[in-house]
Structures are given as C-alpha cells and as structure tokens.
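Two folds, back to back.
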Amino acid sequence: MRLKLNLYLIFTMNIMLFLISTLFGHFAGGSIYDFKIKALDSADVIDFSCFRGKQILVVNVASKCGYTSQYEGLQRLYEQYSSQLVIVGFPCNQFLFQESGSETKIALFCKKKYGVTFPMTTKIKIKGTNKHPIYKWLTSKELNGVNDYKITWNFNKFLIDDKGKLIAHFTSSVKPYDERILQYLD
C-alpha cells in the first residue's frame, strides 16, 4: 500500500511539473536574463539582466564568412535602434573554421573593418555537446518555450522581446535590415 502511494505521488508530481513547464516556458528553462558571459578580449562580463526593457538580437558571427559583411548592417541597426535594441555578437569557429583568430584579432577586425561597438562575447560553441548554455536555451523549445531551432551556419539571428521572450529566429540569409526583422522594431 505504501509503495502504491509513493508511486502515485511521484506520478502526480511529474504531471504537475510537466504542466507548469508547458504553461510557463521560462519557468522550465530559465530566462535570457539568467545568462552572463565573458566579453570578447576583455575581463568584462556581459550580463543579460542589464538588457531588461530592450529587445535583444543575438547573432553567431565569424570574420571569414560570406555573410561577414552583415556586420555593417548590424552596426547600423544597433546605432539606429539603440534606445530599444541591443545586439550581441557571439564569435564561433564551428563552421569551416571561419573564426579561427584570437579574441584580440577578432575584436580588432570588427572595430577596424566595420566599426563594431555592440557587445561581443568570448568565442563559444553554438552546437554539439559543448554548446554554450545560452545557445542551449535559444535552440531548445523545452528551455525557451517557443520552438526548437537548428543553426546550420554563421550569422543566424535570434530576436528576444523587451520582456525576455524569444520571438523570432532568422537564418543567415536574412540581412539585418530585412523587413522580417524590422517589423519587430518599428
């Protein structure tokens, strides 16, 4: 009798946890505001909780990619919408070694070639078993409460609203000034 009661309680608790996580996606997987990450070529830390009240565009970037010129549009977007939008670049070397330089070289390249002033993180992994936790959150419906996403190349973009909810994913071919992005900003 005691065993049946314990099994019933375990079953009931699992059902309750499932329902709570389904109804409140952020509860199950946390929030974008829970993340902190080291800044590129610096001892500084980027704390996503500091971005409350602004939209956040997360982009996996690389210096030697066919889409690298998107840095220019990203910087213009960052400047134009600075009162409501933060762009955060995540250098990644997982696609044909297109971000193989040191963090110092990456920072110099972005600043010198494109005038990048938006926050950039330390180089991370965005796929595979060593995927950074923020990308686990971005790409997993179980964690982000919205959808599962697979990143297949550099310059994928994730847009988070001003309350921390993931609202859209854009593939590499979607440029920063594409109407599909701008519709959320205007």
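---
second:
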Amino acid sequence: MGATTVTGPDEQGAIKHWLSSIFPAQQGTFDPLLSFAAIGLLVVGFIAMSSASIEFAAERYGDPFFHSYRYLFHLGLSLFGALIIYRIPMNIWERTGWFWLMFAFVLLTLVLIPGIGREVNGSRRWLAFGPLTLQASEVAKVCIILYLAGYLVRRQDEVRDEWKGFIKPMIVLFAVTILLMLEPDFGATVVTLCTAFGMIFLAGVRLWQFSLVIMAALAALIILVVSEPYRLKRLTAYTDPWADQFDTGYQLTQSLIAFGRGEWLGVGLGNSIQKMFYLPESHTDFVFAIFAEEFGFIGAMFLIALFCLLIARILMIARRAEHQQHMFSAFVAYGIALMISGQVFINIGVNIALLPTKGLTLPFLSYGGSSLIVCCALLAMVFRINQELSSSKSPIVKNSIADGRKLSRTIAARKSRNIQKRALV
C-alpha cells in the first residue's frame, strides 16, 4: 500500500525562497506609478500651458488657442517618436555612443553659423526645419548622457583608479560647455555639467578627484557670470528684486506676486491676472508661477509631487538595472533622472526667486516642441529599460535557477529513498 510523501517545512521554505528570487515583487513590464506620473505631467502640462498662453496667443496670433494646438501637435510627434525609441534595444544606444557625441557637436556647431542658426532674444539656440524649430542644446544633453553612460561602462575601472579615466570625459564636457556658452545658453550648460558630474560620481570616482573638479567648475561658472554684464545684473537683481522692481527685478517680483495671489487654493483655472502681460514669458520659463496663481499652494505641491514620483521611479529602475548588471541602462536612467530633476529644481527655483533668472524650461509644462519631444524620448528609454529588466534574468536569478534545479533533484532523491524504505518495511 502506497503512502503520500509530504514535503517538509525546510523544503517548502527553500522552494518559496527560490520562487521569490525568480519572481521578485514589482517586476512587471508595466510600471503603474511611472505611467501615472508621466501621464499626469502631460495632462497638467497641457492645461497649465494652455491657460498661461491664452492672452499672449490672442494678442500675438489672433487665436487664444494657438499654443494649445501647437502643444498637441508637438505631443503627437513626441508620442510617435517615443514609440519608435521604445522599440530600440538599449545595446544599440550603447554601441552607437560615439555617433551621438559627434551628432551633438554637429548640432551645437551648426546653430552658431549665421543663416543656419536662428537667433531669438540675442541667443542663437535654434535650428529651423520649415515650420519646426529644434533647440540644439536639448538634443545635445541626451547625446551626452548616452555617450557618457557607454564610456563609464567601458572605462569604469579606469575612472575609479586613474586620473586619465576621469580627465577624458572632462575634455569632452569642456568642449560642449564652450559651444553652449557661445550661443549663449547658461542654463543648459549648468544642467549638462550637473548631470555629467552626477553620473561620474555614481560610477565611483575618487572623492578627492571629484571635489577638485567640482571646485574648478564652480570657479569657471563664477567667472562666466562676472564676465557678462547681463548675467551679473541678473545676479544682483536676484539678491533683492524689490530694490528695482520696475527694471532688473521686474520679472522676479511679478512672479512672486503670482504666488502671493494664489494663496492656498488659487484663483481658479483661467483667472490669472499675471499672465495678462504683467509676467513676461508666462507660458515658457514662468509657467509654474501662473500655475501656482491659478491652483494655489495645494496645486503647486501636487505638481511637485508628480515630479518627485517620476524621478523616484526612474531612480528605482536605475538601481534595479545596476543590481542586474545592466550597467549601461543604469547609467542612462541615472542621467535621465539627474537631468529632469536638475531642470525642475532650477526652473522652480527661478520662479520662487530661490535662484537667479535664467532661461530654462520646466519639463512637460513649458511651451516648446524640442523640450517636450526630448522629455518623451527620455521617458521612452526608461520604459524600455524597465521592459528589458523585466524580461531578462540577472546573474543572481540565473544562479537561483541553477539552485532550484539542484533543489528539485535533491527533493526527488529524498522521495525515492523514502519510497524504497517503505517498500522494504
């Protein structure tokens, strides 16, 4: 008479441990929190930009929804491009890193050539392609992330142990900085340098080497600020904007008035007064101030929470990629999180007079096709990284599978011995 063999508690625990190592929590290809943050920012961005631009569009173009239609057009292009980028494996971006670096240099050089680069408000930052314009610095920032991520993977030991591994990317960043400052685009320069330095720091560079370069970079930025009268004027106006509120401090004081009018719950969608030509660039650099005026402190905190959620999820995906030894994907995700968070911090900091005024867009909210397309492209890369991590098995998981097979053989042998013993009895 046969007997049913019951698996012991130790064996059950081992099996559960093995299964949990293969199927860890939150490993699905769909990340609901990341998707919620991305969709939420796009929806809020469309509403905020449309409201902030109504008066300006009606006066300039005779159509209050001119910028709204353009935003939807750019959003369509962004989503189409994002779908294409999502289909591209990350190893292709890794193999073509040098091409993207050269592409960035070409764009940053072309934009400086008279007749090719388009000049607006004294800055030559745009390339015209018929009805569309491309801001070269926006694309260049992405190219630098891709190149630097590949370099840090190839030369990680060299970056950690030798000066030359650390100096090589500094030479590239120096050349990019020169081209950006010739436009000039001080905001893009700061964001690019901060992103690159953050990626290099996460790669494990020695702290004293990193500190020396940071101090040198800060000294260079101070020289750049002092060397140009308009930058120095912005810095002095930032320290006390109310001292000259109708000239150098005008933009900051009007932005602060917008925040004051918003109070806790805001004046309501579409009811902003500051967007009626009181606050310059209300639909681009200062769209956050108009949003805070219309939706108040609560609305502003909700928007900041969406950005925090987005950045946190990207960092978690980057950390998971690092654990699974997908180092290129990890560095790309880290770079994307650093770039987005840097732009958000600087733009909001300028709006609340925490930082001196500089032209830098707020991702997903400020009007501008280049910024929106680049942001959606970056998110598509993050979703691709998450998909690849979910569908691939890390070395830890592979070892877990081997352990699981060994465990299965052990359990089968124990069952066989138990059956033989019972048969003898």
